[in-house]
Amino acid sequence: MASHGWRNDESPFGGEAVGANPTDRGKGGTKRQLLTEGAGIPLAVEVDGANRHDMKMAEATLANVQAVPCDPNEEQNLCLDKGFDYPEVRELVRDYGYAPHIRSRGEEKRDLERIPGCRARRWVVERTHSWMNRFRRLLVRWEKKKVNFLNMIYLACAVITFRAAGVLG
Predict the structure, then answer these.
(1) Count of structural domains, the chain
(2) CATH number of the domain that 8 lies in?
(3) Which domain holds residue 83?
(4) Residue 51: which region, alpha, beta or left (left: phi > 0; alpha: psi -120 to 50)?
(5) b/e sequence 122-159, b meaning 16+ C-beta within 10 Å
(6) Which of 45, 60, 100, 153 is the residue whose CA sits 20 to 30 A from 92?
(7) In sequence order, what are the residues at sequence separation of 6 or more whose Cβ sits closer than 8 angstroms to the Cβ of residue 118?
(8) Is the Cβ–Cβ distance between 27 and 20 less than 8 Å?
(9) Considering the entire predicted model, what is its pTM?
């Protein structure tokens, strides 16, 4: 039911939760890790420096889940990409009551070659990141304090959720 993903944002002013972005010549950046339900509605978000590994942010993201499952006795599914393919993460996901579905390294590439029309499942999270990037305040991080930036992300998540529910146009 849920998916994980991340996004690096530029941080021109630095501040809290900023680190050297390994994909952008070491410029300061912020990593946004997102947990969504199957339709892309945000359930949890965590922010840290761009140099922070995904697996190290997994526990904080899972701890931030704001939704209660419909049936607490039913195990929920959690789809993760190969950045989370570690035994510690699998155990952590199970501890939080999810069934982990983590693509092993190279497994997705084999399926794309073997199965015609096969698509990665992470497009749900990527689409939600795209929705969040439509809020100009989040595309480039202007806030120095982590709490201010995180609150802007929470506001964007609320707007995305209300739009999906048909409350906002």
Answers:
(1) 1
(2) 3.30.420.10
(3) 2-165
(4) alpha
(5) bebbeebbebbeeeeebeebbbeebeebbebbeebbeb
(6) 153
(7) 111, 112
(8) yes
(9) 0.75
